[in-house]
Design brief:
Layout lengths: L1 E3 L5 H13 L3 E3 H6 L6 E2 L3 E7 L7 H9 L2 E2 L3 E8 L6 H11 L3 E9 L13 H23 L11 H17 L6 E3 L8 H5 L5 E4 L2 E4 L8 H5 L5 E3 L11 H10 L1
Parallel strand pairs: 1-2, 1-4, 3-5, 4-6, 6-7
Antiparallel strand pairs: 8-11, 9-10
Helix pairs in contact: 1-5, 5-9
Protein name: Ferredoxin
Cofactor: [4Fe-4S] cluster
GO molecular function, one term: 4 iron, 4 sulfur cluster binding
Length: 256
Amino acid sequence: MVLYFTGTGNSRYLARRIAEGLEMPLYDLNACIKARDTAPVQTGRDVVLVTPTYAWRIPRVVSEWLGKTALTGAERIWFVMDCGSEIGNAAGYNRQLAAQKQLQYMGTAQIIMPENYIAMFNAPPKEQAKSIVGQAEPELQKVLTQLKAGQEFPPPRDNLYDRFMSGPVNPVFYRFFVKAEAFRATSACIGCGKCVELCPLNNIRLENGKPLWGKNCTHCMACICYCPKEAIEYGKKSRGKPRYHFEALERKQQDV
């Protein structure tokens, strides 16, 4: 089974491609996490977990869900992580997670996809994003070949910088940067509730037709990047920046 969590669609796209290539079922962790559903999942022997990279590891909401959820029938697990630049030493923590689940760790693969973390970085314009997705195709095909053969992924880079970013920096990043206080809706907001619908942690509610954010945020960027009116800002850090979500890129590709 292919499990995935996504913020703005990159991981969903990769997971869908992998599931199609392996002829495996696809399982949406966003829906499970949003519903607080930790009932056992009948996965079969092989599990492929596809996630974005948050602070040089898999998202904390995903590792917490996995810690509470039995993967019935699972014996082996592969991790596929998309990122804007690098995953640090995420593989070391994925290996630990596999051991906790009593699963055979089959490695971690990194695939570069368009950046979406506009709370800190710039998302690429659509044409550049399209190019990045195209450049990711050979790595995706390599991952598929290894998965079909039941092979372990080769070990990713692991140096002092990687260990530092995934180690000490990760909890510091969550503590001081992963907050929702800076999100706000501008006058362009039409009260459609798309942000409420997409928030995997149920951290957004509508009040008088406008979204309000609570304190339980994972910085997935779904609310700000999927807003149909681009009416959500993250303080001053998102002003003037392109929004990114994969489905808009797909529409762009179809229009060409």
